[in-house]
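Tokens for chain A. Residues wanted.
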């Protein structure tokens, strides 16, 4: 087979695979270890700020919502929504950035991402524009300084 799949074909395949995956509960022993570790974690590492939970416009058509800030790991966890046709301009990262596509699709530089896809940008790197033709929601874990500089 020498055919190349189109973007629409890839989107359809991604949707089929995402719908076919059934969530499962972790084994009881693993769940107990995770809950015990969470309970034992220091509670003062997360800073709650007055603007948490509020949507802010980053650029036209793009909004962000701070979910949490971890001062011990120096990270911020945010939701980002891109309306159809919106763009986040090319930018650099002083720290790493992890992106997970919750819904919709986007392109980060030359890389197309669909619902359920993950993208990682290393510290010190720059990636191209983030563009969403159909709109999307991204869950991001970013360097705290990068978040504060953009907010």
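Reply:
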């Amino acid at each position: 087979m020498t055919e190349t799949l189109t973007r629409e074909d890839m989107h359809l395949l991604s949707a089929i695979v995402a719908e076919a995956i059934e969530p499962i509960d972790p084994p009881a022993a693993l769940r107990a270890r995770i809950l015990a570790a969470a309970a034992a974690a220091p509670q003062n590492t997360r800073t709650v700020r007055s603007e948490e939970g509020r949507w802010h416009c980053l650029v036209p058509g793009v909004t962000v919502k701070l979910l949490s800030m971890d001062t011990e790991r120096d990270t911020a966890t945010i939701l980002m929504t891109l309306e159809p046709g919106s763009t986040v301009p090319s930018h650099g990262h002083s720290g790493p950035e992890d992106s997970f596509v919750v819904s919709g699709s986007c392109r980060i530089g030359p890389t197309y991402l669909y619902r359920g896809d993950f993208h990682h940008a290393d510290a010190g790197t720059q990636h191209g524009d983030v563009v969403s033709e159909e709109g999307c929601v991204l869950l991001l874990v970013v360097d705290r300084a990068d978040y504060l500089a953009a907010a």
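The longest strand covers residues 97-108. The CA atoms of residues 105 and 134 lie 7 Å apart.
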